[in-house]
Amino acid sequence: MSAVAFTGTSVMDIDAAKIRGAGSNVHFDKVSVAYGAHVVLHPLTLDIAPGEILAMIGPSGSGKTTALRAVAGFVRPASGRIRIGATDVTDLPPYERGLGMVVQNYALFPHMRVEDNVAFGLRAQGADKALIAERVKDALGTVGMATFARRYPRELSGGQQQRVAIARALAVRPRVLLLDEPLSALDAQIRRNMVEEIARLHRSLPGLTILYVTHDQTEALTLADKIAIMRDGRVCSHGPTTELYRRPPNRFTAEFLGRANLLPVTIAEPVGSKGLATARHGDSVLTGAGRDEKAGDKSLLCIRPQHLSLTADAEHTNRIVGTLRDVHWQGELTHLVLDVDGTPVRVSATKLPIALPEPGARVPLFFAPTDTSLLPEDSGV
Amino acid sequence: MLVWSRPGRIVLWVLFALIFGVLFLAPLAVILLSSLADQWNGVLPNGLTTEHYTDVIRGAAWNSVKASLITGFLASALALVSGTWAALSLRLQGHALKRLLGLLFFIPSAVPSVSVGLGLLVAFSHPPLLLNGTIAIVMIAHFVLISAFTFGNVSAGLARLSPDFEQVASSLGARPAYRLWHVTLPLLAPYLVAAFGLSFALSMGELGATVMVYPPGWVTLPVSIFSLTDRGDIFAGAALTMILVAATLVLLLGLERITKRATGA
């Protein structure tokens, strides 16, 4: 086996790392990127643990792709350092960073067969033929494309091309896999399948560290161990996926990561021993999961549409009343839009009463205190 | 379809046939007929003969074909290398510098070819750069005149090339030279072949500069044609023109086949 050479980590080293199941961590240390006077990424400090999938999500222009490109070495930070494992890669060229990258349009080399595409990285690094053959077979097998080895990219569907692109990135046994909106070019059905396949892939390669950039919250929620939500070149929230979804720290996160109903409330009693605070919304007294709110604080009570019910039970102890405005049936789900004292509230329900109320009717809604989260009213970011 | 009515389409086709026939086909047909004409006193030739072809092939025609093909091939190859190099280098520069240098590259194509020939003649007629009377000065003249077109073609190809290909290649560990050879150039192949074909065709037909600088013994086809017609030997000039057209066509068709094979089109 010829070991070639990423600075700091050779093909052999990466192999060994894989056998031990230990991937590399990525550390952003106050990394900023600017084009002239225009700052596109404000100083970013962030860690991706070995073997973790971190999804960076945010609207267009939020800086998520810039952060990924800084790791890849395609943009030079204006300040700060980037470390992959123990190596400071800030000043290394992209070909010495030991990464694998998958992009939105696959970028398979059209003049090469599938097997040559997958072998590209190893050949570029001067690996020997036996190793290349073995790795190509493994990588294509991992993504279920072994029988397509002799085809050209133009003979494959979009989903198949994306699998080959992933196999190509995996074949070099990267320290970190960078996925830049990898599923955006696929249609909805194939995208759903591919999300599941990437999740399965990561389960089979638990040591692989993945930085996944997307604007699709479903992909992020399905795949990521942690999520960083970007806005205007800054991370506006970062944390474990379920935590961020259940307890969004600010309004932008609540609204960007899934749908959220945000009821303006005034804190009546601060958080007690069970982590619940009492708040008033109009005449309703509501209980919600709080943080450090004080009595009299203006706050927002975040309730996900699927956590609102038209019927009361032992858990759904909070009650608000709204005027039904619209009903949208979408097959698996029915969406109700209500007006609760001037705040639009959306309910997503799989089951509804047989006699659905007519638009204009006053409808009571119930929800459990533990399904809510209080956030500061002025928390735009 | 822009025109829906049948009469409208007929009018357009007739108009197209007239323009194409008068501007493109008629001159070529006249040259073809001239090359085969025994005598031509009326509207059409009085009789047909292949005698003019026999004459020019027996004469210096083969040497002219050889001179034109070698000049065209070498000048085009050189223009292709330098044009590609320039296009690849300029891609990395800032917008203003890229525009300025790009414009400079196109200047020779905006200057009359006779002036380019004259300029080279003056520049290379004194030591230490004494190239006057050599084949090299013909090559240089052709190179100067065609390089802008190779640069333009390759630049257009590069502009259409997604940076993702090269970036993904880099991230996989490909160093710049490996990436250039295995990714960038193969992806540019159709543009490189087109650039070479265009340069070659332009070189094959180049007269203005060549006539100023050509040495004895390196008479290209256009210069031979010009000499023959200048002497009043129109029919021989026409026969030589058809040989020039045929040689250029054969090469361009060959290049097209290479492109198709390379791209799998």
Word description of this protein:
The complex is a heterodimer of chains A (381) and B (265). Chain A is built from nine helices and 21 strands. Chain A is α+β, with helices and mostly antiparallel strands and 381 residues long. Chain A folds into two domains: 5-246, 3-Layer(aba) Sandwich (Rossmann fold); 259-376, Beta Barrel (OB fold (Dihydrolipoamide Acetyltransferase, E2P)), CATH 2.40.50. A six-stranded mixed β-sheet of chain A has the order 8-9-10-5-11-12, sandwiched between helices. In chain A, strands 15-14-13-16-21 form a five-stranded antiparallel β-sheet. The radius of gyration of chain A is 24 Å and the shape is globular. Chain B has 265 residues and is mainly α. Chain B has two domains: 1-49, no CATH class; 60-263, MetI-like (MetI-like fold, Orthogonal Bundle). Chain B is built from eleven helices and two strands; from the N terminus they run αααααββαααααα. Chain B has a two-stranded antiparallel sheet with strand order 1-2. In chain B, helix 3 (61-91) runs antiparallel to helix 8 (176-204), helix 5 crosses helix 6 and helix 8 (176-204) runs antiparallel to helix 11. Chain B is globular. Chain B starts with 5 loop residues before the first helix and ends with a helix. The interface between A and B is medium-sized, with 34 and 23 residues.
Query: Terminal Cα separation of chain A, in Å?
Result: 51 Å
* CATH superfamily caption of the largest domain in chain A: P-loop containing nucleotide triphosphate hydrolases
Give the topology string of chain A: H per helix, E per strand.
EEHEEEHEEEHHHEHEHEEHHEEEEEEEEE
| Largest interface (C-beta under 8 Å) | A-B, 34 and 23 residues
How many alpha or pi helices of chain B?
11
Spans of chain B with pLDDT under 50 lasting ≥5 residues?
none
How many strands appear in the DSSP assignment of chain A? 21
CATH architecture of the largest domain in chain B: Orthogonal Bundle
* Helix/strand order of chain B, N-terminal first: HHHHHEEHHHHHH
Spatially, the strands of the biggest sheet of chain A line up as: 8-9-10-5-11-12
Mean pLDDT of chain B: 88
- Uncertain runs of chain A are 1-21
